[in-house]
Design a protein that fits this description.
about 110 residues, 8 strands, Phenol Hydroxylase P2 Protein, single chain, 3-stranded antiparallel sheet, alpha+beta
Amino acid sequence: MTIIELESDAALDVDHVGPVIRAGRLAECVIDAVAADNPDRDVVVVDRDDYVRIHTRGRCRLTRESLERALGEAFQLEALEIEMPSFKGRLRTRTDEFLWYLTTSDGEA
């Protein structure tokens, strides 16, 4: 797993999914948490000054545990939606996990 920074989101493949977060400390911590939660996937980051695209191929998992570890404090994942103006893919939310994914032809993630 590596974190890959791109200059343009035009370079993203169509099968990349994940959050778009407002730039700042939270975005940096989400990058670290996504990297921890997706050890078998490269994390692609596109910094557009005001917001940051954080994507992995096919499936992007973010857990509350890893985000709290990166932040160094408690954090409710629902609060992430305030700082997430957009995302790519489909999103399944749970109290302790967000999962962005693509739907396959048979409806499975």
